[in-house]
Amino acid sequence: MFDGLKDKLSSFREDAEEVAEENAEELDDPEAVEDDAVDDDSTAEGPSDDSPEGGDSEDADSPAAEADASETEPEDEADEDDSSSAGFVSRAASMARGRVVIDEEDLEEPLRELEFALLESDVEMSVAEEILDQIRDELVGEERKFTESTGALVEDALRDALLSVIDVGQFDFLETVAASEKPVTVVFTGVNGVGKTTSIAKVAKFLEDRGFSTVLANGDTYRAGANQQIQEHADNLGLKCISHEQGGDPTAVVYDAVEYAEANDVDVVLGDTAGRLHTSDDLMSQLAKLNRVVEPDLTIFVDEAVAGQDAVNRAREFDGAAEIDGAILTMADADSQGGAAISVSHVTGKPILFLGTGQGYDDLQPFDPEELVDDLVGDDE
């Protein structure tokens, strides 16, 4: 899963590590350089013990001294040389203390390549920029411990940057259901053809396996065959499904399912809705009505991981029209890019709750940001 993105992140790690290693190798004998720097500083602080004292020495404020100073190199060039020498001495001293400093210009090329890699993997641009900015903050200019390899420095910075954009508002779906007043109403939204209805069946199986009773509700009243599709899932799982005639009011269907759950002590209502584009004003208004009348406890957006940037854009628009609480990305097992998984949480501020990883009812994986980042950044065994 997300193997293409994993390979690109690995390339960045190798390039950035090589940069740090090369900079470290510039100093053949850092301790000797540091000693020389100390000697130079001592000389510059004042006259030596052998310097003549009294009237034989030339007054530093005399016209002759000023004339001598005017014959020295221009001030700008002197400052530049001093800055260069100071930087070299600083790095030498850092290396002598077992530490390394990575300059921003050293990382410029690896970061540029990383940016291209992230965008090619369908990571949203603002998300890619935040990742790059955090890596710069982590690596550039700060002294770091230099042990056997700088690889750990780069890996930690990359890991922290990825986690900061992926781990957004994360909550445990199961714990939330357990802690909520019953019945818990969960509504699923998204466009047609992304596996929304199948995901509802998977979530039902996930909950039933963990001791929660469920009822399905077909609020997708406009699509021909929708009743049959969700009823087939319900039959396969041995669950009750509430549905109305095609063309009926979606809100009424979910409302009836909530009443059924209350009357029969069912823990969770899982409501399907019509697949819609965020540009379909009439369908979006239906969703707004459902939220207003039923007041679902959770609204979950469903899209395909392989949709990449399109999934990210749709998540943003759906969240704007009817605030979502989390997302499910289907077909994650077929996605080598990972752009949607990296970006959806960041652009909506809402977490990914599950990844769909196959066609079976058990092919639903709770989303763990740290586990994903470990897989993306960690070395293959």
UniProtKB/TrEMBL annotation:
It is a peripheral membrane protein. One of its GO terms (molecular function) is signal recognition particle binding. It is found in: Cell membrane; Cytoplasm. This is Signal recognition particle receptor FtsY. Involved in targeting and insertion of nascent membrane proteins into the cytoplasmic membrane. Acts as a receptor for the complex formed by the signal recognition particle (SRP) and the ribosome-nascent chain (RNC). The gene is ftsY. It comes from the Archaea. GO terms for biological process: SRP-dependent cotranslational protein targeting to membrane. Signal peptide: none annotated. GO terms for cellular component: cytoplasm; plasma membrane. The keyword DNA repair does not apply. NCBIfam families: ftsY. Belongs to the GTP-binding SRP family. FtsY subfamily. It catalyses: GTP + H2O = GDP + phosphate + H(+). Residues 15-61, 68-83 have a biased composition (Acidic residues). PROSITE patterns: SRP54 (PS00300). InterPro entries: AAA+_ATPase, P-loop_NTPase, Signal_recog_particl_SRP54_hlx, SR_rcpt_FtsY, SRP/SRP_N, SRP54_GTPase_dom, SRP54_N_sf. GTP binds at G190, V191, N192, G193, V194, G195, K196, T197, D272, T273, A274, G275, R276. Pfam families: SRP54, SRP54_N. It comes from Halobacterium jilantaiense. Residues 1-90 are annotated as: Disordered.
